[in-house]
Amino acid sequence: MPMVDSQPGQSHSFEGVPQPGPSTLKKSAIFIQDACLQHRYIRSRDLSAIVERPERLRAINVGLSAAIARLEGLFPTQEIPKPVAESEDVEAAKEASDLVDVMNKLTIDADPSSPPRSPVRIVHSQASSNILSHPAVKFIHGDIEGDVYLESLSQWIKESQDKIANGGSEIPEGYAQGDLYLCPGSLKALQGAIGTVCEAIDSVMSSSRPNTTQVPLHRAFVAIRPPGHHCGEDTPSGFCFLNNVAIGAAHAHLQHAVKRIVIFDIDLHHGNGTQSIVWQINEETYRQTLESEGGGPNQKMGPQVYYGSIHDILSYPCEDGKVNLVQAASVSLHKSHGQYIENIHLETYTSEDHFWDVLYKEKYSKLLDKARDFLNDTGGPGDDVLVFISCGMDACEHEYESMSRHNRKVPASFYHRFARDASVLSDKYAGGRLISVLEGGYSDRALTSGAMAHLSGLVDTPDGTKVDEQWWSVENLIKLEAATKKRRGGRPSLPSKGSVEPWLERTLTIFSSLDESASRATASTPRSAAFVPPSSRTLRDRTKGKNAVPGPSPSSKGVKRASTKAKQEVVGASEGYRGTEIKSGDESFASTDSSPLSSPSSTEDEAPPVKRLPRVILKLGKPPEDLTS
């Protein structure tokens, strides 16, 4: 990507990246929901292959904290307002009560994570939406003759502990056992996730309306899990049980009269669930339009939705080559049949210049062009428009090789650039209103760098300032990982003042507040009393390093990784599982989980170079009766 001021150690901006004017800065916030930590895998004590894990949110919080710390340096320090004297002849001697009144007029933020100059508002959400009664949830996942799926999901969660204790699976037969898991805390996590998305929408919609008295807020990043874009109306898959973004779109329509919705999906994997739901919504609205034009009775029209996805066509849910899934992930249809859907396939990039000058400029940016066409065709800018980003970070250059095994990646800076471009589109058509919701992303480094870059792109900075992509360079990510690594006691220790770089010191201050809140939520979560059957899998030796690290990418060449040797062990696959031998460095084993849950590790230390791309199949048959090595 062409850059200016690119001397080492200097800030530089991205050429062509839209920059806001001096008085048009939109306000941004992040929404944190600690209830999402309660969704855990309890089927086995062996968590080594589980990538959709609570710790994902910790890695996200590290990246968000670092982004805020860096962005603060671009904003001028605001002076604390002085108290206004009641009159100039106030006597020097004041009563204590008068002094209290004067002090109360001072605007002092006691929260060290949000100083007066912080460009990002941090919202610790306590919101929760009942999945059996919330109108938007029922709009997406309900059924005319009864909310069968929602009631079933609630029952699965309720019975999960007992079923596992009795040696069974909490996921009913017929669903991919490796793609999905539940526990008693899953309900709070799912309801907290939906509630937080809706809360972010309410805040953005209400505060951006004309004549509002609320604190302005235009853009929000919602850090929640489990993800949602693979879940259709009644088909959970790929870690997803409820479609968070689709529910958010329905909530915006039902509660805030939003009629035109843009959904950008930038996850590595095609959001087959979201596209299916969008198709149904557009189909119904198109039917209503035709009936109205044909002289039918007046009726309240449904929303119109644009869905644009950029993804790897070789990965889940398409990697088995099933014709219906591949075709769906390749649809490009605009206006015909009332549909507005665009799918763009990721390609391997050979250099930064190739990515930005060829792939992004000539191919990937068409996702934005088609969204503009949709909005222009349906009325242009308006107060009835809202923009969403289904923000998966698993296409990041730092993702596990086992997750991104076809090398269809994007540099971490993509998450900054796309956020900027989507923000400019929302500024023109939607009054600046934009909601970004976390989807995939599984290695800590992918999540941290992606979150850091993405939030930096969602925040407008003052005229003349520049976001520096070196903020999320490998060198700085290593510093960040070392500083925030969990130590004995569960939390990173704050360094003495002046012992580390200022941005890192500030990052730790912000992050420690987020981490402490998460630790309290985790500590208050009741642990399962269910008996957990011992795993019969034979795992590789972990005593000499860890092998699940982000693989090499064009933008990270020259970065040295320490090599390690480990014992070679092979996990056998029984009938029903398509075990595939995986080799990484000098270590080999087989994947017995044909699922995105599979990954060599969920830790994030430096490790050996990957010699062969691991294969992870994202669909499973029935769970095996017995696994032997």
From TrEMBL:
Occurrences of domain Histone deacetylase (ranges): 148-457
GO molecular function, one term: histone deacetylase activity
Compositionally biased tracts (Low complexity): 519-530, 591-602
Secretion signal span: none
Gene Ontology BP term (one): regulation of gene expression
Region of interest (Disordered), ranges: 1-21, 517-629
Gene Ontology cellular-component terms listed: nucleus
InterPro entries cross-referenced by the UniProt entry: HDAC_HD_type_1, HDACs, His_deacetylse_dom, His_deacetylse_dom_sf, Ureohydrolase_dom_sf
Pfam families xrefs: Hist_deacetyl
CDD domains recorded: HDAC_Hos3 (cd09998)
PANTHER family attached to this UniProt entry: HISTONE DEACETYLASE HOS3 (PTHR47558:SF1)
Protein name, UniProt field: Histone deacetylase domain-containing protein
Gene source species: Psilocybe cyanescens
